[in-house]
Amino acid sequence: MESMGASRGNVPLRTILVVDDDAVVRRYLEAQLAGMGCRLVFAADGAEALARVAEDRPDLVLLDILMPGLDGFEVCRRLKDAPATRDIPVIHLTALGQEAKDRSFEAGADDFLNKPVNIVELRSRLRSHLLIQSLQEELRAAQGLHPGWRWEPQPRARLLVAGSAVDLREWVVDELRAQGHDVLWAPDLRGCLELLAQGLPDLLVLDHQLDDGAAGAFLGHLRTFVKSRDLPVLLLCTREAMDRKQVAPEAGPVDYLVVPAPGAELRIRAEVLLREGRLLQGRSADRIGAGRDLLADPATGAYSEAFLEAHLGLAQARPGAAGATLALLGAGSYQRVTGWLEAKALVLRAARTLNGVLHAGEALCRVADRTFVLLLPGTDAPGLEARIQEARRAGFDGVLAGLTVAPGVSPGMTLRTLAQRLREAAAGPEAP
């Protein structure tokens, strides 16, 4: 059974497999999800669900837990154990309590919703997981063209929490800081706007009703700006607000958490949105780590990693390149900071210092959140050591590591080698 054709015109539709032994529930979900623009297929039990997946690989599985024969835990476990299906997102639906949630995530489920399901919440989760899957596919395709390398560990996420209720705000801030995130808070929407003006966080957590306004209207305002249209937002709301659909417009990455809730649910909601946000950042020119097709980093004015790769490729192809000297100096500002505003100031200070040591014909490139590369034509190995000392005298107190570019070595291999040297220098002499 399925509710729509395989495509609309020439556009293939995303497929959602809905698995539930109750025909009434299947019809209800079909009616509620028909407007999402997805193809819906159905299964009445676990065995039929596995058969449908094998015959017509869906993009997402919406899976009941209590079913005759194979229950939802076992179906999920089998999907996640198989290499061909482990990347398919699985969302469990059940009327069971917290113990079922724990078992659900042990089985490998990507998300969990309680029955009776709130349709606004369900649509938000479906869109979020389908978008994550689409962005991952884009990323894999892009990496096939641009093999990547990790310049530095994933930076701690920067979160902003806005809430007027002190007990709720303190609970959220404590839970998220315990996860290792940098968290700022604002008591109202005015304070939230002031902090947003200083730089976008990786995730905005909003209490649904603040003293100076409704979070839904505020979020609608944020979505009208290019810079904040893809900002992930988690709305904390009451069950009454969710049931009455007094929530935000369905635009951009947004999710909902009905409070009070266990700390584990807050952490899961935050991690899903952060994952979505990190994938969106990779294709957005409005955030740190601008898109690979840009030649300049908007935040610091430095050139981009794309510029660096292109320059290395041209330098290697230029006639007479074998006799030319060229060095790269990696510079990382990895000092501990107390918050993401301090981290932003650290990066800008590093960019100013490194720009100040450039000579004619040289360039500064930003290749990661806190990592820069100085492109130094005409510099040999002894000259590279002198440039390192020059950067130290100018006041750069971060990690420095360099190399001279060997003729005939690809830009990718050159940059991977530099990234490895920078990581080793950051780890110190004790590193293996």
Note the topology:
Blueprint: E1 7-8, E2 11-12, E3 15-19, H1 23-33, E4 39-43, H2 46-55, E5 60-64, H3 72-81, E6 90-94, H4 98-106, E7 111-114, H5 119-145, E8 158-162, H6 166-178, E9 182-186, H7 189-197, E10 203-207, E11 209-210, E12 213-214, H8 215-222, E13 233-237, H9 239-243, E14 254-258, H10 263-281, E15 303-304, H11 305-317, E16 326-332, H12 340-355, E17 363-366, E18 371-377, H13 381-393, E19 399-404, H14 411-427
Parallel strand pairs: 3-4, 3-5, 5-6, 6-7, 8-9, 8-10, 10-13, 13-14, 15-17
Antiparallel strand pairs: 1-2, 11-12, 16-18, 16-19, 17-18
CATH architectural category of the largest domain: 3-Layer(aba) Sandwich
Report the C-alpha radius of gyration, rounded. 25 Å
Mean pLDDT: 82
CATH class of the largest domain: Alpha Beta
Number of domains: 3
Number of DSSP helical runs = 14
GO biological process, one term: phosphorelay signal transduction system
Domain Response regulatory: 15-130, 158-274
Modified residues (4-aspartylphosphate): 64, 207
InterPro entries: Bact_response_regulator, CheY-like_superfamily, Rev_trsase/Diguanyl_cyclase, Sig_transdc_resp-reg_receiver
